[in-house]
Design brief:
This protein is mainly α. 83% of the residues lie in helices and 0% in strands. The chain has helices at 3-37, 41-70, 77-107, 111-129, 134-152, 156-181.
Length: 193
C-alpha cells in the first residue's frame, strides 16, 4: 500500500470517528425533539430529515474536501472511494453501537414505543385537520399499530441482515461520493521536437 493510500485511510478513519459521534448526537437529539419537544406535525417529519440527511450530507462533503486537501489535493476514484468507505463504515459502527445497542437497549428502551406514539399522534392531528371522520382515523391508527407490531418482533437474524444491508448501502454511498469527490492529478504531456 503506498503512502497516500495509507494516509487517506488514517485521515478518513479519524473523520469517521468524528462523523459517527455527530451522527449519534443528531440521532438522539432528533428522537427527543420528535417525541418530547415538538407539537407540530411538520417538525415531526422535517427535523429527522434535517438532522439525518441535510446536516450529514453537508458535513460529509466538507470532510471529503478537507481530507482531499490534506493528502495533496488529488486522489483517484479508488483512493477516494476507499477513504470515504472507511469514514462511512466507522461512522456507521459508532452510530449502530451507540444508538441501536446502547441508547435503544439501555438508556431509553421505550424509545420505539414513544416514537410510534408520536407518529400516531401527529398522523391523527393531520387527519383531523383534513376533516377525516373519527371512524376512519381509528381505522388508520389501528393499521399503523399493526404495522408497528410487525416491526417490533425483530430477531438477531433480522439485526444481522440489517447490518449487512447497511454495509452494502454504505459501500454504494462511498462509490457515489468517491465519484463526486475524486480529483485525478493532472497528466503532464511532454512536447517532442
Amino acid at each position: 500500500m503506498n503512502n497516500i493510500d495509507r494516509q487517506t485511510k488514517i485521515i478518513f478513519f479519524k473523520y469517521g470517528l468524528i462523523l459517527g459521534f455527530i451522527f449519534l448526537a443528531l440521532s438522539i437529539l432528533s428522537y427527543y425533539f420528535i417525541t418530547q419537544i415538538t407539537e407540530s406535525p411538520a417538525l415531526f417529519v422535517g427535523v429527522p430529515i434535517i438532522f439525518r440527511l441535510f446536516i450529514p450530507v453537508i458535513l460529509t462533503a466538507f470532510l471529503c474536501f478537507n481530507g482531499r486537501k490534506k493528502i495533496g489535493g488529488y486522489w483517484t476514484f479508488k483512493q477516494a472511494t476507499a477513504g470515504i468507505f472507511v469514514m462511512f463504515l466507522t461512522a456507521f459502527f459508532i452510530q449502530f453501537l451507540g444508538k441501536d445497542m446502547v441508547f435503544d437497549k439501555i438508556v431509553a428502551p421505550d424509545n420505539i414505543q414513544k416514537t410510534q406514539a408520536a407518529a400516531i399522534r401527529f398522523k391523527t392531528i393531520i387527519l383531523k385537520e383534513k376533516g377525516t371522520s373519527e371512524a376512519d382515523i381509528k381505522k388508520d391508527n389501528a393499521e399503523m399499530k399493526k404495522d408497528f407490531a410487525l416491526q417490533d418482533n425483530s430477531t438477531i437474524g433480522d439485526t444481522i441482515r440489517g447490518v449487512v444491508i447497511s454495509i452494502l448501502f454504505v459501500f454504494i454511498l462511498a462509490l457515489l461520493f468517491g465519484a463526486l469527490f475524486k480529483k485525478d492529478p493532472p497528466v503532464l504531456v511532454s512536447k517532442q521536437a
